[in-house]
Structure formats: C-alpha cells, structure tokens
Design a protein that fits this description.
With 124 residues, the protein is an alpha+beta fold. The protein is built from three helices and four strands; from the N terminus they run βββααβα.
Length: 124
C-alpha cells in the first residue's frame, strides 16, 4: 500500500480467467497516525467464529449432528462461507450485512472516520 492510501475498508472483486468464477475480498487500510474522532472496527473475529467453511465453526460441527462437536481453533487463512444454509441459520453475509451499510452511511454523511480490523484491536 502506498503511504498516501486513505484509511478505509476496501472491496475487491476477483474473477478467475479460466472458469469465470467470481469472489469478493475485503481488506482494511489503517492510518495509525489518524486523529479522526471516530474509529470503525470490523467484526472479523466474529465472522471467523461463525464461518462454517469446512463444515465446522467455533460453535458447531456440521458434519456430525449426533455429536454436536465444534472447532476449538479456526484460521483466517480459509474462505468465508457466506452462502451456506447447512447450519439452519440461513445465509449470512458477514461484512455485507452490517458493516457495509454503516460505512456507506458514515461516508455519505461526511463523518471523519478511521478504520481497523478487530484483530488489530486485539494486537494492541
């Protein structure tokens, strides 16, 4: 990232040239020297806790409903399963559900806001 990048949450649309498959990724650009009066923190830790990619989340093992087991550790290095309804909770859209509309509101109304991910707060 260039040093002049504006703090924010950015969305990128990725398209596979071989299959045409499409996915979105998002990333945060922080400005650690910011003096903005508002700090917007994403809920990435919650997204990962509920992420059922690989059939297991921190709350439940969806491959074995008899044991109702769960994962005890998850990785950020995995896709986010946002289209699955295997857990009976319906589809979840993580960043698109609450963060994106709030960011649109803040920016459309001219709020001076800085951004960081939940893991950034944890590391501080």
């Amino acid at each position: 990232m260039p040093a002049t990048a504006t703090s924010g949450i950015y969305f990128a649309k990725l398209t596979r040239p071989d299959t045409g498959g499409v996915s979105h990724i998002h990333f945060i650009v922080r400005d650690d020297a910011s003096t903005s009066p508002l700090l917007f923190q994403t809920s990435d830790e919650t997204w990962q806790a509920y992420n059922s990619y690989g059939q297991t989340s921190l709350y439940r093992d969806f491959t074995n409903t008899l044991t109702a087991g769960r994962a005890f550790k998850v990785s950020y290095n995995r896709p986010v399963n946002t289209r699955s309804t295997i857990d009976g909770l319906g589809q979840r859209s993580f960043v698109w559900n609450a963060e994106y509309p709030m960011i649109r509101f803040l920016e459309a109304n001219g709020y001076n806001v800085a951004y960081q991910a939940g893991v950034d707060t944890e590391r501080a």
